[in-house]
Structure formats: structure tokens, C-alpha cells
């Protein structure tokens, strides 16, 4: 059974805490690593083991915030050292030899390695033993012890004013009280004046420091602007030099190309003309446009003539067939009349 912490906040604003009771587990003679791991992971609600609870006198403690006590660089260094220690510990845990996992169908169990075997049991052996005693006899209560009186009684008479005079004895006390009060008041006044002077010096120092910080920031900003302006000017100058170099290269390449192509163009044109790349536009138009169109039109005309002749043949065949049918009928009617 695990304990459940239930912090609640009532409507009145008071904070209450309640924890469900749980039963303690029986401890085995040989500890189980799995059970120990579960116990370590369990969370307890006992404030006696809470590190946030301060024990002892807290009047003399002067706890400052972390930012005022420790440098952030030191905190980062401590965190880095802690992370390295955890990583080193984890690496050692991984490199430590361990028992291999059991094969399928088997499991690891604890085995005794002592010379003599001993029976293990989770329950502690108990036995009941009884003893008969005599009954107590009733007796009266013990009387209060009063020691016997010894010696003789002696008295001394003291009259009024023989041992103590208030008016005389009170003067030193009053002088001490008034003197200490005045001295304390003067000390407090001097402390207040000293604190006021310290605050004035602190204010003057802060004003001077703020003025120096403003001046430092102004100088840093001026230096940054000068540096950026210098870098910008140097970049512009480098860009101008690069453009000049590119222009010079382009001019040189153009001059070389012109000089190289001065004698090349006539020879190229002559070779192209010899190979037939230069032609007459009218002749090329006749060959590519007029002749294909003419052939297409001729084919269309021939197709029309063939189609007309085919239709005429079909009509003649139909007429001949119809007349042949008529002649056959006439022949049949003649034979039938005879």
C-alpha cells in the first residue's frame, strides 16, 4: 500500500495536510534488489526527513538570495561538475559486470553460500512462556517522611531604618538608569546621523557610477558606430576594386574575342555558303510551302474523281441488277402464260 499525500487548502486560507496510513512491510533476511528499488522510489510525507525544514535556532541565520551569494558563473561551473559526476557514475554502472539475463523458462534465485545451510523464513520464530508468582499481600500506604526538628530557635529584632534607606539607596540606581538612557539615546542619534551620511555617500557614489556607466555606454556606442562605418567603407572599397577588376577582365576578353574573330567570320561564312547553308528564300518557299500544297490539292482532286467513278459504277450496277430482275420476272410471266 503506498501513501497518498493530500495537501488541501480550506476556504479560510489555512493549509492542512493529511496522509493515508499504510502498513509496514516485513523485512526479509536477504534483501531483494527489486524491492529495495521500489522502496527508494516511494515518497514519504515525514517532514523530519525533508531538507527544506530548518532545525534549530533560526534567529541568527542571515540567508541571502542565491543571486547575491554565488556568482552565476560559479553556479554554472558547479552544475557542469555535477553533470559530469552523474555521467561518470552512470558510465561506471554500465561498465560494471552484471549477471546475464536468465534464459526463457528460468529465473534467478538467491542461493546460500555458507558452509552450513540455514532455513530461511520471513516470519520470526516466537514462543510463549508463563511463570506463576505468589499473590501480593495488602498493606497500608507508606506514611510521609517528616524529619525530626533539631537545634534552638533564635530571633533578631531590626528596627525601621537600621538596614536600608530608600532615598539614599535609590540615587545610584536612578543615576545609572538615566545615564544609560541618555547614552543610548545619544548613540542612537549618532547611528542615525552616520547612517544618513552613509546613505548620502552611497547615493553620491551611485550617481557617479551611473554617470560613468552612461559615459561608457556612449563611448562604446560611438566606437561601435565608428567600427561599423570603417567596415562599411572597407567593404565598399573592396567592392569597387572587384568591379574594376571584372571590368578590366571583360574589356580584355572582348578585345581578344574581336581580334580572334576578325579573320574567323569571313572563313565561316564562306564555308557555310559552300555547304549550302545560305539559300534563296523564294526557292526554299516554293520547295517547302508551294509544292506540298500542290501535291495535297492534286491528291484531293484525284480522290474526288475516284470517288465519283466509284459512285457511278455502283449506280450502273444497281440499275443493271434492277433491269435484270425485271427481265427475269417478265420471262417467268411469259412461261407461266404459255
UniProtKB/TrEMBL annotation:
A GO CC term assigned to this protein in UniProt: cilium
Source species, domain of life: Eukaryota
One Pfam match: Radial_spoke_3
UniProt feature coiled coil, ranges: 209-246
Localisation per UniProt entry: Cytoplasm, Cytoskeleton, Flagellum axoneme
Keywords, sorted A to Z: Cell projection, Cilium, Coiled coil, Cytoplasm, Cytoskeleton, Flagellum, Phosphoprotein
Location, primary (coarse class): cytoplasm
PANTHER family in the record: FLAGELLAR RADIAL SPOKE PROTEIN 3, RADIAL SPOKE HEAD PROTEIN 3 HOMOLOG
Family, similarity comment: Belongs to the flagellar radial spoke RSP3 family.
Protein name from the UniProt record: Radial spoke head 3
Organism expressing this protein natively: Acipenser oxyrinchus oxyrinchus
